[in-house]
Amino acid sequence: MKLNPSAHEDTYSRDNLPDMDLWPDFLLDGFDYPHHLNVGVELTDIMVERGFGDRTALIGNGRRRTYKELTDWTNKLARTLVEDLGVKPGNRVLIRSANNPAMVACWLAATKAGAVVVNTMPMLRAGELTAIVDKAEISHALCDTRLMDEMTACAKGSKYLKTVVGFDGTSNHDAELDRLALEKPVQFEAIQTSQDDVALLGFTSGTTGKPKATMHFHRDLLIIADGYAREVLGVTPDDVFVGSPPLAFTFGLGGLAIFPLRFGAAATLLEAASPPNMIEIIEKFKATVCFTAPTAYRAMLQAMDAGADLSSLRAAVSAGETLPAPVYHDWQAKTGKPMLDGIGATEMLHIFISNRFDDHRAACTGKPVTGYQAKIIDENGDEVPRGTVGRLVVRGPTGCRYLADARQADYVRDGWNITGDSFVMDDDGYLHFAARNDDMIVSAGYNIAGPEVEAALLSHPLVSECAVVGAPDEARGMIVQAHVVLIEGADKNDITIKALQDHVKAVIAPYKYPRDVRFIDTLPKTATGKIQRFALRIPS
User: Fold this and answer.
1) Which of these, 256, 99, 87, 83, lies nearest to 181 by C-alpha position?
2) Are 3 and 196 in contact (CB under 8 A)?
3) 16 backbone dihedrals φ, ψ, rounded to 5°
4) Strand spans (E) along 183-304
5) Nearest CA among 128, 127, 169 for reference residue 147
6) Residue by residue, what is the 3-state secondary structure of 311-378?
């Protein structure tokens, strides 16, 4: 694959792409874009040209902003980055903020200026930021002034980070970047980046040790909208998006910025996207598309029992955590609409396997999104028979490219992206999640998928939430250990433990029951609601 000439003056990103013989196969049929492509322009100026100027683009922190306002705002900011802060095409620009319209504006502005953007979460500390800055050799950082302390600490003594500028994440526009942009013209001649210039570095979540940076081109950011969002979600300009994932995660950037802006829809952005806050936003703005984890949907079900009106939602997308069958069934019974389970990865940018509105099943992740192919392989790389648990591998129009990282050879083999998940493909071609490869519990020679045990436990009326992990055991190698959050008022005693164990034995094969049940007040979770099972594991 030959790359187009780059518009980047700072060539660090292209210079540090993996060797092409380590790239996955890219299946680009049906995704045709011009040589020059700037995703920042596509999502703002082009949308105004198409007649969406007066429609709402972003809602957040008490304000609505139209597509024309967002276009003008991002052009003024882009001018500031270039004229006042010296950003050159190809420079890496870090953005530190919670989910708010200003963060989206900064991302779009930096992209228009030809920068390679690194979005980061507000909870990161100086040491974690330093690891990202050093890995990507980041020269500029734009930071919500409310989060400046750790950013300043990171910049002190940094070999690479020379410019840190604050922006106002509230609606007041009262910070250095905002003041610099105030008197700039609303026109900006965006950098004519190539469709295969790197636009975004997505750092992988949940890993320990040295961070991995996934590299995504301008075209990749449009492919996920023109593929998954168009085909599976059927996004229209009348949609209103809401969700919990941080914009720092590619799942959040796609679901709460790229997808709505690509189709002239509106995005509601919440700095604290707790289930109660999301419920309030859904009711207030009649949100139609929601992206969050199953744990939040369980809270929404309980809220509907208490009288919350979530009837405006037409699409409930579940990802980041396996969707238990009881949640799927309860949602369908309560709303009459399916919950769309799907799986994505930072390496792949967004969801590549999903259920559809007219083709969905419980405890099933669905089929590949158009353009993607999937198969299940064994440890030798050979495809396994249908119905057999193995490793999920995929290829399609997006795929893994790690920035200067030997681990590229572990994720991509023979043109396929090797995900970290164990799956089963049934006789009809539907894919069923078994476990993260590290969530498979091998007990006395039996392979036991933790999520299957969790689904069984969640179908018991006393269980509010649970997480299942493997625990070391002298006799069996490992045993199934369940950490259970009971509903309010339930007794935490041996009688309840016995009842839960008997229930699991009755629902799934008895050998899978949890031999160790522990009651816990809350489960450890990430910012997106994903359960952190590693925090529950006892070291072997």
Assistant:
1) 83
2) yes
3) -110, 15
4) 198-203, 213-217, 240-243, 266-268, 289-292
5) 169
6) CCCCEEEECCCCCCHHHHHHHHHHHCCCEEEEEECCCCCCEEEECECCECCCCCCEEECCCCEEEEEC
Beta pairing class for 140-144 and 339-344: unpaired
Helices assigned H by DSSP within 225-324: 250-253, 259-262, 275-285, 294-305
d(CA 111, CA 7): 12
Q: Give me the tens of pLDDT residue by residue for the chain, a chain 540 residues long.
A: 899 999 999 999 999 999 999 999 999 999 999 999 999 999 999 999 999 999 999 999 999 999 999 999 999 999 999 999 999 999 999 999 999 999 999 999 999 999 999 999 888 888 889 999 999 999 999 999 999 999 999 999 899 999 999 999 998 999 999 999 999 999 999 999 999 999 999 998 533 457 899 999 999 999 999 999 999 999 999 999 999 999 999 999 999 999 999 999 999 999 999 999 999 999 999 999 999 988 889 899 999 999 999 999 999 999 877 788 899 999 999 999 999 999 999 999 999 999 999 999 999 999 999 999 999 999 899 999 999 999 999 999 999 999 999 999 999 999 999 998 999 999 999 999 987 776 778 787 676 888 889 999 999 999 999 999 999 988 787 899 999 999 999 999 999 999 999 999 988 878 889 999 999 999 999 877 889 998 998 765
Rounded-to-integer distance, Cα 500 and Cα 459, Å: 10
Nearest CA to 348 among 310, 387, 305, 393?
393
Distances (CA, A) of 124 to 120, 151, 153, 157, 241: 8, 9, 12, 18, 26
φ/ψ of 429, rounded to 5, equals 90, 5
Q: At what angle do helices 126-136 and 148-155 cross, to 10 degrees?
A: 50
For 342, phi then psi, to 5°, come to -155, 170
Contact present, 515 and 479 (Cβ < 8 Å) = yes
Q: Are 116 and 199 in contact, with CB atoms under 8 Å apart?
A: yes
Q: Which two tokens stand for residue 239?
A: 């949609």
Question: Which residue do the tokens 């289930």 mark?
Answer: 275
DSSP-assigned beta bridge partners for residue 266: 240
Q: How many CA atoms lie within 13 A of 201 on its CB side?
A: 30
Q: Torsion angle of alpha carbons 300, 304, 307, 312, nearest 10°? A: 90
> What distance in Å separates the CA atoms of residue 433 and residue 455, rounded to the nearest whole number?
12
CA-to-CA distance for 411 and 418, rounded, in angstroms? 5
